[in-house]
Design a protein that fits this description.
single chain; mainly alpha; 2 domains; 10 helices
């Protein structure tokens, strides 16, 4: 068990951090929701009612979709675009998907390579793009969840104010939807930009996301 935990410590750390943050969000969100309910003359709701509501669902989904969009774009654009000096980038001149020899796939697969890496045709193509495909699928699903939950939450506010509800299409074309969405997108893009650029000049000893402390600034694609 100790070996299992040590070998998976990074993923376990972020899993626990995610669960704690989600629980904290649900408690704080419930308190904030109830405060607004009382201010508007409504009745407070239980924690269970809140976490099963569209208000909580839309808040969670809109963060998930922006995070997965960030990783999807970073995974895909780093295939073709480079940033000189960044450990997050391939070296200039190495842009592109690379051949089987570089990727250790097909006839160049090693004995312990994944089975689909050794295969040819559709299976190798799917496996060779599986990370981007799954990230893209999760982004699309979370975006759809955000839009559906957001429509329900928006219409609940509309009805409370004796105004007409809107359709799903009407909501995803609304300023409310895109205001919430773009708030998250711009922060994610800024975070990636900061990571790519700051890692050119700054170091974090021992981190695989940083170049070794003594590595020249112009060195590209070099990690600890």
């Amino acid at each position: 068990m100790r070996r299992l935990m040590r070998g998976n410590a990074l993923s376990l750390f972020f899993l626990v951090a995610f669960l704690l943050a989600l629980a904290g969000q649900s408690i704080a969100g419930n308190a904030d929701y109830n405060a607004n309910q009382i201010t508007d003359g409504g009745a407070p709701v239980s924690w269970i009612s809140y976490v099963s509501s569209s208000d909580f669902a839309v808040d969670v989904a809109e963060n998930w979709q922006s995070e997965y969009l960030q990783f999807l774009l970073f995974i895909m654009v780093t295939v073709w675009l480079v940033q000189r000096g960044s450990p997050e980038s391939k070296k200039p001149g190495e842009e592109g998907e690379e051949g089987d020899e570089d990727q250790k796939s097909g006839p160049y697969a090693e004995r312990d390579s994944p089975p689909w890496a050794k295969a040819g045709g559709l299976r190798q193509m799917l496996y060779g793009n599986s990370l981007g495909l799954v990230m893209g699928l999760i982004f699309v699903l979370s975006w759809v969840a955000q839009s559906v939950a957001g429509t329900a939450a928006y219409n609940a506010r509309q009805l409370a104010q004796l105004q007409d509800p809107v359709t799903w299409f009407g909501y995803v074309c609304s300023a409310d939807f895109w205001n919430r969405t773009l708030q998250n997108w711009q922060s994610e893009f800024l975070a990636v930009l900061s990571m790519v650029v700051l890692s050119i000049y700054l170091r974090q000893r021992g981190s695989p996301e940083s170049k070794p402390v003594g590595t020249p600034h112009q060195a590209t694609g070099v990690e600890n």
